Structure formats: C-alpha cells, structure tokens
Amino acid sequence: MNIETKCLHSGYVPGNGEPRQLPVYQSTTFKYATSDEMGKLFDLEANGYFYTRLQNPTNDAVAAKIAELEGGVAGMLTSSGQAANFFALFNICEAGSHIVASSSIYGGTFNLLGVTMKKMGIDCTFVDQDLPEEELAKFFKPNTRAVFGETITNPTVSVLDIEKFARLAHSHGVPLIVDNTFATPINCQPIKWGADIVTHSTTKYMDGHAVGVGGAIVDSGNFDWMQYADKFPGLTTPDDSYHGIVYAERFGKLAYITKATAQLMRDLGSIQSPQNAFYLMNGLESLHLRMERHCENALTIAKFLSENEKVAWVAYPDLEGDRYNSFAKKYLPKGSCGVLAFGIKGGREKSIKFMDSLKLAAIATHVADAKTCLLHPASHTHRQMTEKQLLEAGVAPDLIRLSVGLESVEDLLDDLRQALDKI
Ligand SMILES: *Cc1c(COP(=O)(O)O)cnc(C)c1O
User: pTM score, two decimals?
Assistant: First the structure.
C-alpha cells in the first residue's frame, strides 16, 4: 500500500460484521477464565491484554498504524511527546550513561535532557548539528548510549542531516533516535535514512486538530543490541522483574518496544488514554492530505514574508536560498511542514506589536494543527533559557514561530498584511 492508503487502512483491519471504525476499548481491565491464562500474560509467555497501563487494543491499533507509516517493526503510544522522548532514551540509558543531542531541539526536550535526566545521572552533550562529522565525533564518550535529533527542529525549522547523524551514531555503536514530529512520516521517514528509533509528539500534525496530547515511539528493529551487549545491559542481560527474561534474546527485533512496554510502561505508567488514541486514529486518516496543504500554504506565506520590507528574515526549509534548502530537497522532497520562523525589523518590540495586531492567526502555545497560530519562543516556550542558551539553540530574540494552518491562504495573507501595516 502507498502511504496515503496506509493512513486509512493500516493498524486496524475489521473482520466480517465488525465496526468499520476503530472501537474505543474504554476498559481498564480484561477478563480471563483461568488463573493460569492470566499468569502466562504476566510472565510475557503469552500475548494478550490484561491491564490498560500495559496494553490496550485501541492504543495498539493506533501504534501499529504509526509504526507502518514510519516503516518500523513495532510502536507504542505514550501520554505525550515528552513521555515518548523520555521513554525512548530511558529504555537504553541509566545512571552513568551519556547522550549526544542536537542543541536545536524543542525547548521541552532540551529541559528534559539538560535538567531532569541529568538529575537521574544521565549526562547530555548538546551539539551544533551542522558541524562536520569529524567535529561531532569528538563529543562521543565511552559511556555514550544514544544520539538524538529532530528531523525539522522546533522552533528554528533547521533540517537534520539524518544520514550524517546515523553514521556518527553507528560508528560509535549506539542508535540514532529522531523526533519526527514536524515532518511526519508523510514527508520524511527517518528510518529509511538510517535512524533506528523514531519518536513523535502526536499532539501536533498527527492528531492535527489540537484535541489530545499524546506521543508515540517506533522502533525500526534494525539496531543489533547484542552486538553491543555491554552498552545495553537492560536489553541484553536478565530482567529480574520478569523471571530473568533477556529481551534481545527472547524478542529479537521486537525487544526494544517489548521492554519499553513491559518494563517502563508498567513502572512509570505514562499511557495515552484510549479515547485520545481514538481521536488520534481519526486524525491520521487525513494526515497525508493535511500535510500537503500545510506545506502549500506555508510556502506561499514564506515567500510573501521574505518579500516584505518590514520582515528582517524568514526561515523555511522549502524556500529557495534557505540555509537548509538542500537538506529539505533531499530528506523532504514532498515539502517540510507548515511551520516557519521569521523576525520583524526593529526586533523584539516590533515583533510583539505585530503579533498582537493579528486577527485570524492566534497567539497559542501550540503548533502544527489545523488553525493558524503563532508564538514568540523567547517570551513563551523558551523563556526558561538564558540569552546564551537561546543563541545556542538558534532562537533569536525576535524569532516568531508561525504555524500555518489549513485556512484559505488568501485570508491568512490579508491578516499578515494588515498586521504588518500597523508597525
Ligand atoms: C511538542 C513537541 C514535543 C513534546 O510533545 P508534547 O506532546 O507536548 O509532550 C516534543 N518534540 C517536538 C518536536 C515537539 O514539537
């Protein structure tokens, strides 16, 4: 099936007389006839549902669809994108581990890695993702366990050279984890370019309508944990909490997701509610159509802004002449996403005046949904960062992040025009 068809048909295939649309299994628990049957589930000896914190049929169908869209072998849903990135890393890291991550990543992930995981004894080196390979190689340490980046960074819309990052990770015997939230699998499938694990904030384009916070993790099944057994004891040595199961031996290509579900979800419990998974399933059905329009509208607006004399700069990877245009052509041939960044001449003050003058585009702490919204990271999402950290993350003080929605592009242009006229 082509990806457009997968959006509609993957993950849930009803049998004869069954509901055409995925049912919401709004049940915490599942019933068994004998104690022995249930016991086998607890020992991971049989497959089945017993408690929604571990697995739920609605969530599993949606995770399976996302895994198919990304070209992975297995997936799981989490309560948020934050939980997805935390689980993806914590599944293979522990106190004493080290992570190499791009410094341009989403502010929430920057805090997760730089502050909260640090308290757990997991260290992170933030790197300029545009440095040449040999420069980046210098940041690896014997205890490095993962490399992390975003296909298109939030909010600077920089495009990651996924192949370069995959080569670096693999030559150091660790997996590459890519947060593919902004591109979605419609526009880029990082696994094809060498990423081992893909994460999502499904809150964004996948849901697409700003109704449910959620996350997802997809594993390619390609990373050979056993080859680097000493680095990943959680996958390659017995898990005492499951009678000594060795995930990589017992579950092969499914080891990573099985461990994340059976162990991390069991103990940390950040599940997506089945109701939210249902909304997500509906969003995914039109993802291919929406992404196309988001990109079309965003490119029109990026061109308009770049030609306006009151605009200091525009960053949008699909724009000819953009710093990341060549990577966009390679990794995102169908278009990048609906998000763009720009600055107004006159700096911070003028930018804020412009934003407050908009009528259709709303100021919202959100991005990547159907309705156009915008935000000023230095005063909103990234306000915990120092000036130095802001500059390292490439977030200029005047940067406005515009998330272009699905409205008529003419109406959006009119709104931008009248707000620009007011400054
Ligand atoms: C929003 C976002 C997150 C965090 O996701 P939540 O669902 O808000 O927890 C992570 N990564 C990226 C790229 C995001 O845009």
Answer: 0.96
